[in-house]
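Assess the record.
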Amino acid sequence: MKKNILDIIEQNIKGHQFNILIGLGEEKDQNQKIQTVCETFAKKYKNLIVLVGGYDSYPNNKKDSEIKGYDLKIEREIGNISLTQGELEFETDDSLKPADALKGETIVKVNEYLEHIYQIIRIVYEKTEEIRKTGGVYKIVCYHPERIILSIVFFDLIVELVTSKPIADIVKNPKLEKWIHQFSGIRGAISAARFLGFLKLMLTSLRTDIYDVLRISRIALMETSDNLQFLFAPVGIDEATNFEKKKYILNNAALILTELGIEPHLSVMSGGRLGDIGRNKYVDETLETAELLVTYFENDSPTKYQISNDQILIENAVKKGNFLLAPDGVSGNFIYRTLVYLGGGKAYGALYSSVYFKHQKVLLDTSRVAKEVEIEGSLMQAAGFTELALKNKNKK
């Protein structure tokens, strides 16, 4: 019998501390849905969830003075960043002082940028002390939610890159330093273009190999209408576009399953059956690629995995495989949407696998119109994989 992947992930979060940042968008009804799910989840697991929205994310947003429903208002813009090594000191003011908004294309001095993010982190830490004891949400309003979320998630890595010192030497507060490492991020209802755009800027700033930036790979956790759970990719139309990227995402999926204690059973999908060769050039190419991938993981890969070319027979693949690879991002997107919105299936969010394995940072993607079950599933994954990432860091 196939294992319930979400149940295994949940076992990693019980009794552990985690902090999740999740983005709000422009649709008020969707934001309310996100907030309701987050409040229930935070209370259940007694942890903190930070909602980060723009000035158009909260009720009564005609004028800044009328905006209601937030706990922290960030009036300082974060523009594009250019990270260079150099010394810095964090300010210790008790509040974020209003400042003239910087233009979106302004290059922010690294010291100024890090001091600003540190101020936000420290204020949230201090203001949520009581909330963290029982579990709850804390709400931020700002100009660019995606920049706040990603800057906090990657904060320790940025500090170490810029100063050549561990974050502990800069923060000098063991409890706060530990707390910073417990952050993960969920795109939520933020525009995918804005979120991915700043993520790529962040990864480039961290001196990530350009190929890693270009092969951002999201792996979704899904469930059929008869409760069969499996990992699935690609879900983005620009992902897994060639043989090397397909090989990369297959390996990442296998590593994720292995970390969860599940033996990988990889299934590669094609555009048709083997008997269809010669009927359509595109179908022929997908069948050939699938065979090459199977050959690689059976014979040439450093780690051998159980893998099969299940052609177009997705109904068979889902019964035996725990990771399914669609022929391309377009068909993957169709499969995802058909299962979730027409077929009675479920989605639980998609992990940015390349970010997780390259940086041991946890980012999740959800649909901007995600159902409650997808929001909850993404929260579960964010918390569970953060705990796994922390365990992996402690082993090193």
